[in-house]
Amino acid sequence: MNTQAIRFLLNGEPVEVTGVAPTTSLLNWLRVHQRLTGTKEGCAEGDCGACTVVVGELEGEDDALRLQTVNACIQFVPALDGKAVFTVEYLRRQTGGGLHPVQQAMVDCHGSQCGFCTPGFVMSLWELYNDCSASGDRPDDNRIRSALAGNLCRCTGYRPILEAGARMFDLPAVGLDGPTLRAQLLALRRRDGLAYAHGENSFHAPRTLADLAALRSRHPEATILAGCTDIGLWVNKQFRELGALIYIGQVAELRQIGEAGGALRIGAGVSLSDAYAALCRHYPELGELWDRFASPPVRNAGTLGGNIANGSPIGDSMPVLIALGSRIVLHSVRGRRTLPLQDFYLDYMKRDLAADEIVEAVEVPLPVPGLQVRSWKVSKRYDSDISAVCGAFALRIEDGRVREPRIAFGGMAATPKRAARTEAALDGRPWDEETLAHALLALELDYAPLTDMRASAGYRRRAAGGLLRRFFLETRPEVSLAAAQTRVFAAFDACTVTP
Amino acid sequence: MKADVFPRVPHAVPAAHHAHPHESAHLHVSGAATYVDDIRELAGTAHAALGLSAKAHARIVSIDLDAVRAVPGVIGVLTAADIPGSNDCGPIIHDDPILADGVVHYIGQPVFAVIADSHDTARRAVRKARIEYDPLPAVLDPLEAKRQERFVVPPMRLVRGEPAARLAAAPRRLKGSWKVGGQEQFYLEGQISYAAPKEDGCIHLWCSTQHPTEMQLVVSHALALASNQVVVEMRRMGGAFGGKESQSALFASVAAVAAWKFGRPVKLRPDRDDDMMITGKRHDFHYDYEVGFDDEGRILAVCIEMTARAGFSADLSGPVGTRAICHFDNAYFLSDADIRALCARTNTQSNTAFRGFGGPQGAVAIEYIMDSIARAVGRDPLDVRKLNFYGGEGRNTTPYGQTVADNVIHELVGELEAESGYRARRAAIAAFNAASPVLKKGLALTPVKFGISFNVAHYNQAGALVHIYTDGSVLVNHGGAEMGQGLNTKVCQVVANELGISLGRVRATAADTSKVANTSATAASTGADLNGKAAEDAARRIRLRLAELAASSHGEGIDPATVRFADDHVFVGDHAIPFGELVQQAYVARVQLWSDGFYATPGLNWDRSKLTGRPFYYYAYGAAVSEVLVDTLTGEWRLLRADLLHDAGNSINPAIDAGQVEGGFIQGMGWLTMEELWWNKEGRLMTHAPSTYKIPATHDCPPEFRVRLFRNRNREDTILGSKAVGEPPLLLSFSALLAIRDAIAAVGDGRIDPPLRAPATPEAILDAVDAVRAQFSAAPAAARSDVAAEALA
């Protein structure tokens, strides 16, 4: 098969890449092929942030420039086609050799000790800096923390880095030449999709849904690639040979968010960042879950569609989507079908998905009056940890009675699963202690969780019960408690101050 | 000379006792700081990967590597049989094979290595190996190892006074068991070694290590070379925390043997998962204790047996056990004590050094006990702690016989208590808890006293070289290893201070065994104390020569001792000579402009068999107050505020020292609250990557974090009056754990002692909450206050 060259901007300069396997990580390409060694490998699984780089893309109908952090260790090089990659080496070019305000603030605040994680922090801060500079915002402490939630530092304890995140705006500003960058990206844009090949392996990046469906039909054996945040690990950690890859990230139809028929429709190619931003506009109660879902670089690269299609029992989006009554839209050359999300999951890592089908979108019902919704995860760490338990709760209270309760948990079974007995114990009952007691007993019967390194089966049961009780305390008609009375994280946010 | 040769530090800024940035900060933030994997590779460089044992304990029946060799790009393989010298990389006791020979002792033990033309090829090829095992019984639990009397070193015991008799006579007693988990170092830069063959059978090794000399020795033994044939170079590490003290040796050895065998440069950079599967961690400890005390909470006698998980080999477990024994007292006078340490041999990774080196494990036990005593007698834990502090007539000798001569714990704790508003917050928290059904707050103030020096006296030595070039720039080389702690920055500050020049003139180079020989590990917090003194000695020797020259050439009968070095000038009588000018004159006058320097810590002695002596030159002190919020429904928690006050002596660099204090505190908090090592039934470590092993992240740094250095010039003659600061602050984190325990106690009446194991994960916290609830509802009201400490297995 003939191949096209992968084309993108590297630190502002166009590059063309051929002769590397499609699963070559951006990190290895930078370090080994380009000898740009500022970007570090700390874990090769997107969990430490030492490899953080910034990727620029044009988005939306007005082709607005968007810069976002990603983990270079789990980005395949062909997925960068048409984009702009910025590494830590770029920053001093911006200033003609001096330190960029982000870097100067890190030096001034003593934000580096061993220095190995530092380039990753600098890039996360650089994204925040550019984002805030463009909008004229000054980030508060919590926004700085959240922007850095995907970067681990073992030396500093973070305080000086958080301080640098505030201090960088006090230094003489250094702007990014957006218009030039935008023009460069427009010049790189392809009419048709990318078809890249190397040996036995190939990478296709179609630009339309029709092309995607046709490709899928011809290559049912191919791996569908979206954000690469999980599939990158198949390569780095499991050494899997993937053969043909079909990348959905350039399919315009899949990158759309819209509202229709009382539902929010989120395309399968929409990033987790954008999907949750849209969800939280309608369901602000989900803010904490969003902030805790993976890390910013993973949310920027990963997609909601990918999280759903993957179907991991510990994925954090499914419980709440199921509790909200979401539907999944599947697409193939044969047409389109829609089914309730809960029915998509058949068994451990088994889904109701035909070989020629792809996930097109998820449809999330919009809130109705009186609907109470919560979803929380429990894990050892606040930031970027995989849930021991993730619970999602939705119900309406009419005339003091529970209507249409929908409860789903992750981490409690082989799939994200509804709590049928618990729901039955609630339906039509007054929302009081007695009903809760019955529901808690029912919850014991709904799940038979496992013991693993994240938690014991017994803890998972008790924590699930604790979350249900918390939901009750926050939503009961009589003297309901505020979030700051029931959740340590809400209370933490309340005492977080700008340094 | 160009004007901008020394641009970074204005002359007016003093070199010492000033918050200079880390010497590499500008490189760190630019991605321009070179770590071993960033060194431009030599032509023909090959890459190694390790094949690991899949069994916890087994005889190797056969190793079939044919399929590995057949992978395109594979250059060859290495097994134990290929090692020409000794197949051992153990630091003290020689029980650590480089590659398993005949028997494997844990899942993750390296069995063979693959050498290939790329890192990826080597890693993929490893998986083609077929190893046949004949399983042997595996011991995975340290307590089971104790029952079987499987120890890596003989049990250690320190007894002072008559603990058994005093215990029996004590009016009140508590007996319990407790445990604290281990901790992965999680240096961000993993283990890495890069070896290049040189002429005449020599090896040059770039290695991320805290102990270049040890790497030189291990490599020379493995290759049957003389030490003078091996050079180890180490510019900086991306973190180490003890994990690269002894355990960089395996990687150094494999890279060097491969380089020797295949005659080409070989780099060995294990993936993070392999690194965590192979290397040892902080020892988890199990404690069985009994303590006797009076009605006020004064300890009368205490007996404790500490069982540490040593793993499959000795490594540094013996000294870790010793340090645990020597820190069980923490800040408290223990008149009658029986302190034992057992290093249990298990079929798991061989545990090793980690910041504090057993000290934290020893001291955290007495703090946990102190807390329990306070609940038992119904007093504020701070009051009970104060009652037991060292100080006063006959209360100044440690169980191991050293006099605590520099005690500042009373003043330091008093200052922190006042500054942090401890008493008022205690009351506010009680009020909050009374009104809060789900969330409970807790508060704890804990002290630290930490002994500085290697327990083994002869390790307490260091050397340095200082060169002054004719342009007036200065290069310093010393035996210490820069791992992020700011050692090079401090040493440069010391040299600049000694020569009266601005810091910008001084540059530190890589540690290099061909420059400064026979160095000790950069460990035990001693890096700046030892190497700073050695560098000061070297600089002083040159300064004396320069002073003599200045005195003799600028006036009759001027005493060289009156020549002053300051502000980049040399002052002789009324004359001020620019430093660079004097250096030029010295060169022309054939005065030696470089010197070595040496330092050995004075006054130390240690009897290894009796566990007594003066192992520590001095003590560093500190204290912390933590306030937490605990969710009694899920066990989730947050640190809301931490106030730290720490004694760094007359700090050479307050910013760097504050960074050590803060970073040590958060790292210790990670150990005690969220970092959990979990092995499955087969003995496979399942938490071997950051996806499953969680170190603190940004939201774990408390929103109110008040950190201050305690003003206290070291009474001993240390480098510029400073104190070591690497390890002691880690112990400040006890306050976070005990604040959680305090919050849990609020679920009951405050007198029930929560059985909180560490790490205090949400699960551990919820277990303790449930235990307190159960006791509280079961116990009749009158009896509730007498509930004793019970451990949760």
UniProtKB/TrEMBL annotation, chain A:
InterPro entries xrefs: 2Fe-2S-bd (IPR002888), 2Fe-2S-bd_dom_sf (IPR036884), 2Fe-2S_ferredoxin-like_sf (IPR036010), 2Fe-2S_ferredoxin-type (IPR001041), 2Fe2S_fd_BS (IPR006058), Ald_Oxase/xanthine_DH-like (IPR016208), Beta-grasp_dom_sf (IPR012675), CO_DH_flav_C (IPR005107)
Enzyme class: oxidoreductase
EC number, UniProt record: 1.17.1.4
Domain 2Fe-2S ferredoxin-type: 4-91
Record-level Gene Ontology MF annotations: xanthine dehydrogenase activity
Keyword set, alphabetical order: FAD, Flavoprotein, Iron, Metal-binding, Oxidoreductase
SMART domains named among the record's database cross-references: CO_deh_flav_C
Keyword Iron among record annotations: yes
NCBIfam families: xanthine_xdhA
The protein's name: Xanthine dehydrogenase small subunit
Organism of provenance: Aromatoleum petrolei
UniProtKB/TrEMBL annotation, chain B:
Coiled-coil region: none
Molecular function GO terms recorded: xanthine dehydrogenase activity
UniProt entry keywords in alphabetical sequence: Molybdenum, Oxidoreductase
EC number(s) given by UniProt: 1.17.1.4
Domain (Aldehyde oxidase/xanthine dehydrogenase a/b hammerhead): residue spans on this chain: 30-137
NCBIfam families according to UniProt: xanthine_xdhB
Protein name: Xanthine dehydrogenase molybdopterin binding subunit
Native source organism of the sequence: Aromatoleum petrolei
